[in-house]
Request: fold
Amino acid sequence: MKHIESLIEKYHLNHIKDELLMAAFECIKVVPSQEAILPIGCSKMGGSPDLPAELAYPTYKGNPLHFVAQFNLAEIQAVGIKNDLPEKGMLYFFYFADEKQEGFYEVYGNSNVKEGWRVLYYEGTIEELQKTHQMKEQYSQCRITFEKVQKLPELFIENEDDSDRFLQLLEELIPDHYDNHQIFGTPFSVQTEVFEEAQEFMNVHHREMTLLFQVDSDEQHLNMMWGDMGMLYFCIANEDIKQRRFENVCCILQSL
Reply:
């Protein structure tokens, strides 16, 4: 938290320091970098997934979903943030984002249509994986690395001067380069509070949820856009993580 404390001092917000530090949270920043050739089973976004034969490529009305990302869970656990994800295996994220296909407008941004996205969990070995090509149009392939970081959420601060300085602090802490990909912590809502919106579609209180993956619009690295500079949020009940029920994930899309 030393970096946050130094920013609080820099922007003359020491008088609300305790309030800000109480709101601070730890999370994993997902950092993409384009690479044409990657080893099977590494963590990545875009390109084609490395799937085992036992997992069918997910579709909606017969059309393949866009592959968003895959996590090698051992790489996430190596970051050192306490969590209930499996110690090893793979986690895959898909979303139906092809506007040329039938059913696009039924799914896109509609959290009621659960077939429009998929989170798949595989607990076997990397040796059983193989690159699976299904999409002609893909997001740009990027290797991803994971960094443990501390962030502050967007907060309502009544005093106008304090609020302005806090926004400046946030801009320095989390520069808006449209690459705010994140695991765990508090979602950065584009519209309403993400967990509260997800609560409408999940049989669980918003305080009992985990942000499994926040996906930013990232044209620079991934050629990826969600609506108008929006974000995609994969949310899951805490108990579902413990029971490995990743089929119960709720996906929220918010856009400007």
About this structure: Residues 40 and 87 are 18 Å apart (CA to CA). Helices lie at 2-10, 17-23, 73-77, 104-107, 160-173, 194-199, 219-222, 238-242.
